[in-house]
Batch of 4 targets.
Target 1
Amino acid sequence: MNKIKAALMTGLLCLLAGCVSLPPPMPPELIYSKTEQSIQNPAVLIGVKEDTSFFLADELCYVENIDGRVVNDRHKNPTDPVFLDPGSHVLGIKFEQGHTYAHITLPFVAAPKGQYTIGHRTVSSFWDPPGHLQLWIQDASTGQEASSTAVTPISVQQSSPIFIPIMTK
């Protein structure tokens, strides 16, 4: 009987393991892959990573996509430069801090050899604890806004409850 159960469990495990597969790779035309060498007079955009305090997670603002094309590894390296062609772009920017996040789409015109950073401000109140995010692109040398300011609500990622079994007599 135990051999039959072991064989059935092994078969079930093999069946379920075969159902799990990695997603197909993203097509290259959907990935933003411009480098400093591939652009004449590139503009540079750098994300933000701020250490808020010992008790809170870092604030991250980074470019998630440019003109609908995904920018890889921005979450891991938000302050690495992103090189842009001079001209008009639509930037998808993400804000994260622990379990809170926000996405903003922002139109932006990059100047040749421009140096830009992402400016942001969170606004919350007693009645709206997660609050709202104000986000813009600013000139790195002057601090002046180089785009309009976008405002969006901040979302809270729901986590699963943790159940701890308690043994009683």
Note: The longest strand covers residues 87-97.
Target 2
Amino acid sequence: MFLACTSNGGGDDCPVASEDCPCTDGGSCDDGLVCEDDVCRSEGQGAGSAALCETSCGAAVSRCDLTDSDRQACVEDCEARQAAQPEDCRDEWDAGLQCQSSESAWSCSDGHAVATNCEAERVAQEGCIWNGGYCDELGGSLTTAGACFVECTADADCPLDILGCPAAGTVWATAYCAVDYAHQDQLGCGPAGWRESSVIGGCALVCSGEGNDSECPPQMHCVADSLAAGSFFCTGVGG
């Protein structure tokens, strides 16, 4: 989600009340159109159609005075991302585009338009992917317990913005992407193979017993959680 457009100068407006453009402040549209989610659409067009990319990019172009070529590049990028979304997460993706259909969703800086006011929709969409078992698409591999292991050396290595690389730069021999602290209460740690650990202060990869290192990623060890009897997790300390 979410999109960014770059300007080469000039302007291209999306006329208020026209098709695939914002409704008037009073919720009205031109004849033959209806206002749905603050966007004027033909009756029956509905959310989830390709028009959402046009509308979202149109709002960015209008907000930041970008060019027609910028709008086309934005639409092409949006449609490519849209096609790549897992089927089970399309509703969350469409909700994000609907949010971005308003000019107020966008901020402008140095010839760029960036969607900065659709955080809730972005988190919901990324959470759907992370919790939906799409490990291959994220470039990861499954542990024995079913967790998606994505190795990292910095937060920027993680494929979703809701993820961080908390063990990067520590004594751990191997660091992995996990739901960051800011989103753990809302999203949890993962669909399977994860648990919150007080020992490491975040999300930990689950294993079944002391010394079962084969259940952990390379250079990690399965150890007992000293603060949760009968629980075990993978640690990179001493790898």
Note: Helices lie at 51-64, 68-84, 90-99, 119-131, 181-187.
Target 3
Amino acid sequence: MASELETKSEAEILEHFKAGAKRYHLGEMLLEPEIQKQGGDMVNAAIDAWDAKGPNGRETALTPMLDDPDLHFRVEAAAALIWVVPDRVIPILEDLYAHGPDEVSDAARVTLWVYRRDLQEEQKARERQGGGVEGPDAGEAGAGEMGA
């Protein structure tokens, strides 16, 4: 079943993503988990809408935001793309972790930590099964979403 957001234009979905990112970081700064959750839900809804539009929907929509002057948007775009284009976003996240304001640095740190933890867990699972050491499937449902 298609969500209402899936029927919106790319620009409308992007505005929804940005509003969610702002709300998420506002909730974090105010120590208001409900506001933070609402923002995260908005970001995830935008990601789901882009994913529903096709295999490159998320990447096409968010890649330009990796250079956005607003670091809050940049870190959320990078987090949403970490399983899609890790070679492109890991250096961005590392830079935001090292040089961004506290809330951006924290978001980058957590995203990198979760990504690396999941890679290690996937590698261990593959080794137990006698398989290779490749990373998780980039197409996993929910990969790169907030709260994942």
Note: Confidence is low (pLDDT under 50) at residues 138-143.
Target 4
Amino acid sequence: MASLASLATVLGAGATVYGTVRQQQSQQATARAQAQIAQQQQAARQQELAVQQEEQTRRRQQDLARTVAATRARLAASGPQPDEGSAAAVTGGLQQDAAAAQAADEEAYQAQLARGRASLLQPDGTLTTLLRSGRTLGSAARSLLD
């Protein structure tokens, strides 16, 4: 009768370990599916941000071209050459301001991309499940030895 109880304990421990392993496999499959969905969402967010960034850059370049053209036309109408002296300084300043604004937008864009990235340290629970099943097996072995 005692050997029957020991056999039942071993079978119970084996069934528990099997169930734990199956549960862990199911959790891994779910974690992989969730990670794939998260990657797809992240790629969509990055693509959307890239399109927004390109549109802002294009708009800024158009605004700069219009502003420089209007400034050069006003300066030319008032007499000085638009590419010489203070007129050149004005148009150069406009271009520097636009470049600084573009750099600030680029930094904001990079920060938005970095903020949306998933952490590489997200737990998937694989080691935890394995350790739990080992603890169950250890308990079964200890009960057999007692």
Note: The chain has one domain: 2-145.
